[in-house]
């Protein structure tokens, strides 16, 4: 069992890293981890991921009640929705990184999967990426959409907003988020050019070997 204080330190460390890499800016985005009792640690509202303090990170019950720390992100409810549907998830990352958000603003032919399988790691770490409808930030009606998508997806894209990515640890969720952002960059770099995405057979092999 990982101690709560250790997980608070991980949130600070990864938040700083994401901020320094330019994947988080201002006070946008939030991180969370799930504790053994089902409560979560989540970054506070209006906090910058680059300047977090361990003791001020919010602790929230599985029902959404603040247990300790500063008031939580107004989007803590959709973190809880992911955890409700994904028992294996121990962490959730939500950021507003440029290329992923740009993808969320486009019209897509297939909103059930908007991330082209350009690389093996996109398939292995992100999988299919559904585009969810737009809701204003903090709108609790988003929870039902997130809950439904989380049943079958480790990652999802909120329209005109940005991605939500879960993982079995904060490190796994962060690395998957970084992979998503890199594939989004490739998507725009190859725009207008004929690409060679992975075949259905190649995707099936990756899923069979790596468990997606």
UniProtKB/TrEMBL annotation:
InterPro entries reported in the protein's UniProt record: Aldolase_class_II_sugar_metab (IPR050197), Aldolase_II/adducin_N (IPR001303), Aldolase_II/adducin_N_sf (IPR036409), OtnC (IPR050013)
Class of enzymatic activity (EC top level): lyase
Catalyzed chemical reaction(s): 3-dehydro-4-O-phospho-L-erythronate + H(+) = dihydroxyacetone phosphate + CO2; 3-dehydro-4-O-phospho-D-erythronate + H(+) = dihydroxyacetone phosphate + CO2
Biological process annotations from GO: pentose catabolic process
Class II aldolase/adducin N-terminal domain boundaries: 9-188
Gene Ontology CC: cytosol
Regions that span the bilayer: none
Matches recorded under Gene3D superfamilies: Class II aldolase/adducin N-terminal domain (3.40.225.10)
EC number assigned by the record: 4.1.1.104
Protein origin, superkingdom: Bacteria
Cofactor: Zn(2+)
Annotated SUPFAM superfamilies: AraD/HMP-PK domain-like (SSF53639)
GO MF annotations, alphabetized: aldehyde-lyase activity; metal ion binding
Keywords: Carbohydrate metabolism, Lyase, Metal-binding, Zinc
Protein family (similarity comment): Belongs to the aldolase class II family. AraD/FucA subfamily.
Function according to Swiss-Prot or TrEMBL: Catalyzes the decarboxylation of 3-oxo-tetronate 4-phosphate to dihydroxyacetone phosphate (DHAP) and CO(2).
PANTHER family: 3-OXO-TETRONATE 4-PHOSPHATE DECARBOXYLASE-RELATED (PTHR22789:SF0), FUCULOSE PHOSPHATE ALDOLASE (PTHR22789)
This protein's name: 3-oxo-tetronate 4-phosphate decarboxylase
Record organism: Devosia geojensis
